[in-house]
């Protein structure tokens, strides 16, 4: 009687070979606690000595930087109240002998600051309008419409940021003297300030970065409803872009307000000068304390704009840095 052969299932033998060296090294790295790398460890900051050293260094650094930035403003404001003899005294005095605020009214009348301020407001307002009009349209086209050569155009726009402003000063001036194609002379006109101010590659880059962070589904929903690209820009993109629009607006106004070289070239007429050029043109005829008072008056609008909108500036600059 032949015995039937019974086939038993063959069990899979586990691979008992040790893992490779690089796998063991990765496992050891994961098992080890993450170590703190820095100048001062968190444990040191919890000690009494660490807290004293930390707050001493922080107080010294903050106080030093504050004095470095605020002291010139203080010196300018108090210098206007000093007499010409006090200004040239050696060693200089940190406080005026008497608070003479009438020098500010004298500077307003002698230098005709009202006319210069009015001119500068016109230049800054027009630069703000044309900057938002052209730069927003360009950034929207590069970000959402995506033309055929959009990347090439963006690269050319960003390349202008690498060119020093003094290099393009002469070509820009020649363009203002005789506008290409039209042949118009824009000297002593606000257009000489407005048009160059609108051609700003940095603003286009900021706006495009923010527009890239807007979800495309939001625009596609508006397209399904039958909205045109212009309608989407006006009703969808601009309302959610208020932070970056505020930043661009503030920077555009401040750039025109503090500019000196370009208005000096394109606005030679004394009745059309901006405030910085006007004060400089009359500086040789005025006492030094009156001149300093005029500089204080000219600085007040820009300082107020920064103090009021400084939170909007920081929020707008970081608004488009992260997506999600």
TrEMBL record:
One of its GO terms (cellular component) is plasma membrane. Gene3D superfamilies: MetI-like. Residues 117-309 form the ABC transmembrane type-1 domain. The keyword Transmembrane applies. PROSITE patterns: ABC_TM1 (PS50928). Keywords: Cell membrane, Membrane, Transmembrane, Transmembrane helix, Transport. It is a multi-pass membrane protein. Belongs to the binding-protein-dependent transport system permease family. The chain crosses the membrane at residues 52-75, 121-140, 152-173, 193-211, 232-257, 290-309. This is Carbohydrate ABC transporter permease. It comes from the Bacteria. Residues 21-30 have a biased composition (Basic residues). One of its GO terms (biological process) is transmembrane transport. It comes from Herbidospora galbida. The keyword Membrane applies. Residues 1-40 are annotated as: Disordered. InterPro entries: MetI-like, MetI-like_sf. It is found in: Cell membrane. Its main location: membrane.
């Amino acid at each position: 009687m032949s015995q039937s052969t019974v086939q038993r299932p063959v069990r899979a033998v586990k691979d008992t070979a040790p893992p490779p060296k690089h796998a063991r090294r990765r496992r050891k790295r994961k098992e080890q606690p993450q170590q703190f790398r820095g100048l001062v460890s968190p444990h040191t900051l919890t000690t009494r000595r660490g807290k004293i050293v930390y707050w001493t260094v922080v107080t010294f650094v903050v106080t030093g930087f504050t004095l470095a930035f605020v002291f010139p403003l203080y010196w300018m404001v108090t210098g206007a109240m000093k007499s010409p003899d006090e200004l040239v005294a050696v060693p200089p005095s940190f406080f005026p002998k008497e608070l003479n605020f009438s020098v500010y009214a004298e500077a307003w009348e002698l230098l005709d600051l009202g006319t210069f301020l009015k001119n500068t407001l016109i230049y800054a307002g027009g630069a703000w309008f044309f900057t938002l009009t052209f730069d927003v349209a360009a950034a929207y086209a590069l970000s959402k419409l995506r033309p055929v050569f959009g990347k090439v155009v963006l690269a050319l726009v960003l390349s202008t940021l690498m060119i020093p402003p003094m290099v393009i000063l002469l070509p820009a001036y020649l363009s203002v003297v005789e506008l290409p194609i039209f042949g118009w002379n824009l000297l002593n006109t606000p257009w000489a300030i407005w048009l160059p101010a609108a051609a700003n590659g940095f603003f286009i880059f900021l706006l495009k970065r923010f527009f890239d962070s807007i979800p495309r589904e939001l625009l596609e929903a508006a397209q399904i409803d039958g909205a045109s690209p212009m309608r989407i820009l006006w009703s969808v993109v601009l309302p959610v872009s208020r932070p970056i629009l505020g930043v661009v607006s503030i920077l555009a106004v401040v750039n025109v307000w503090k500019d000196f070289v370009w208005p000096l070239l394109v606005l030679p007429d004394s009745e059309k000068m901006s405030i910085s050029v006007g004060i400089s043109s009359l500086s040789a005829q005025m006492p030094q304390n009156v001149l300093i008072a005029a500089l204080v008056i000219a600085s007040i609008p820009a300082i107020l704009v920064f103090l009021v909108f400084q939170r909007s500036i920081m929020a707008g600059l970081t608004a488009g840095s992260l997506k999600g």
